[in-house]
Fold this sequence. Notes:
Blueprint: E1 9-13, H1 16-29, E2 35-39, H2 46-56, E3 71-74, E4 81-85, H3 92-96, E5 108-112, E6 124-131, E7 138-145, H4 149-155
Parallel strand pairs: 2-5, 2-6, 4-5
Antiparallel strand pairs: 1-7, 3-4, 6-7
The chain binds adenosine-5'-triphosphate and magnesium ion.
Amino acid sequence: MLTKDRKPIVKVMNSVEDTAELAARLARLVEIGDILLFTGVVGAGKTTFIQALAKNLGVKERVTSPTFVIHMLRESGRIPLSHVDLYRLNNDNEVESIGFEEYYDSAVTVIEWADRYSGFRPPYLELHFEYGRQENERIVSIDPNGGDWEERLAKGGIGCLSDLE
Ligand SMILES: Nc1ncnc2c1ncn2[C@@H]1O[C@H](COP(=O)(O)OP(=O)(O)OP(=O)(O)O)[C@@H](O)[C@H]1O
Ligand SMILES: [Mg+2]
């Protein structure tokens, strides 16, 4: 449920391995129909996280940033992964012309540069990535928005990741 006073879950990741570990935990609880919105500046770690998520869903192909093709569907894992990158799109009309929402009901959809589009509606999970102080430090704020995301994150151990806090 959406709660007015919900706070994002903040995780500090000191290495690519930490990021991969968090993504692996998320991979265990994602389901067909889920929408994950990724934001954060260039190099903040969005694709790195999604690569680990894909690997843990059993995706065989190498997952690269779909910046130039905008949308890629990967169907070799336990559930299909629909990977979108809105970086090069300029307005809502351009985003709506891609057609990735056709896969909402048959895949888990992950969207990089989700803040390029104003039309996303809950339920979704928002993941905002930032650089930390150290070279390989990244900070992610995970914001469960609607649906049963809060309960699922808690059950999946993401609300209380002692080794990453
Ligand atoms: N803790 C960390 N987590 C994730 N990436 C890290 C970490 N430490 C270093 N890195 C490095 O930071 C870079 C992150 O790049 P990545 O492509 O994942 O960013 P991005 O947010 O997808 O950028 P873009 O907006 O250009 O798509 C990679 O080179 C990765 O190896
Ligand atoms: Mg990327």
